[in-house]
Automatic annotation (TrEMBL):
Keywords: Cell membrane, Membrane, Protein transport, Transmembrane, Transmembrane helix, Transport. It is found in: Cell membrane. This is Biopolymer transport protein ExbD. One of its GO terms (cellular component) is plasma membrane. The chain crosses the membrane at residues 21-41.
């Protein structure tokens, strides 16, 4: 048996280099850190759909039957009067009170040019919260 200089058997005498097993502790640590990262980075927000109908080419006819809400970059107009987002519910209630048969009437939302989607969705949310049942989206006049 060949011996090393210090008196211990050489690697060749022991049958080759010894293989070490893969430690599972670091692997579990990495998996746990990835799990925590993805849990914190994920969004558990519920997505919901906004019921919306398009008026097609009859936007003015639908606007004559229902309440017209015009959304601009800087202001929102409800039945021709400028209102803020909080005033949309009051405008809808006034419109329904003025027309007793307007409970099922349509609300037509007409976005102006350059209006971003966030602002349009905020208006649609306020109308839905105020109880608007049928909301339609009209194109530019």
């Amino acid at each position: 048996m060949p011996w090393a200089a210090e008196g211990t058997p050489s690697i060749a005498a022991r049958g080759g280099p010894r293989r070490r097993g893969v430690g599972l502790t670091p692997l579990i640590d990495v998996v746990f850190i990835l799990l925590v990262f993805f849990m914190l980075a994920s969004s558990f927000e519920t997505w919901r759909a906004l019921p919306l109908a398009t008026t097609g080419g009859a936007g003015s006819a639908a606007a004559a039957q229902g309440l017209l809400v015009e959304v601009g970059r800087d202001q929102v107009r409800c039945a021709g009067q400028p209102v803020d987002l909080d005033g949309l519910g009051d405008c809808l209630r006034r419109h329904r009170a003025a027309r007793p048969g307007a409970e099922d009437g349509a609300v037509v939302v007409r976005p102006g040019s350059g209006v971003d989607l966030t602002r349009l969705v905020a208006v649609l949310d306020r109308l839905a919260a105020a109880g608007a049942a049928r909301v339609s989206l009209a194109g530019s006049p």
